[in-house]
Give the backbone structure.
Amino acid sequence: TCDTGDQQTTAAVHLKEPAATIVERLKDVSTYEGEDAVFECRLSRETAQDAQWFLGDVPLQSNEMNEIRVQGTRHSLILRKVTLEDCGSISFKVGQHSSAA
């Protein structure tokens, strides 16, 4: 607000959260059946945007077989005790950006 005594004007500041981008992409993982497979990627910033992991087209959630971690800008997926059925494309999506391995 600017007030000169007999006149006043007011303005507001509006902020938009900039979109996070993927700065460290997923890498292919080779492992043995029964071991864990770990996938990691890093974003340009911490974000409130929804990030999602996929095995093929199936969205993944943390459970006894999959562990999803977020530590600052680093996002990790651990597939526990993989089997041959777990072979395939893993992808990570945030906003309009994605990475696959």
